[in-house]
Design goal:
The protein is of the alpha+beta class. Helix content is 39%, strand content 25%. Pfam families: Glrx-like.
Length: 84
């Protein structure tokens, strides 16, 4: 068993969002490199508070539950976050 920390990536987006599609491609690639899991949450079915806070920022990427990025995903920044 490894003592290395395991990270988790979450993306908040919506169907039909081209920026979300682009962000997901970045997440899939970087997650595979680091062997970490990711999930995608649909903001259209989120609670009202989540919609109010994040609707204008999607896609929003979280690493280990903390907001990491929004609008455009950066491979470089995501790799840096997973390396720490």
């Amino acid at each position: 068993m490894s003592d290395e920390p395991t990270h988790r990536i979450t993306m908040l987006g919506k169907p039909g969002c081209h920026l979300c599609d682009e962000a997901l491609r970045v997440i899939e690639q970087v997650a595979a490199e680091f062997n970490v899991t990711y999930d995608v949450s649909d903001i259209t079915v989120a609670d009202a508070a989540t919609k109010e806070e994040y609707w204008d920022k999607i896609p929003v990427i979280f690493v280990d539950g903390a907001q990491h990025d929004f609008w455009r995903a950066s491979e470089k920044r995501l790799r840096a976050a997973l390396s720490s």
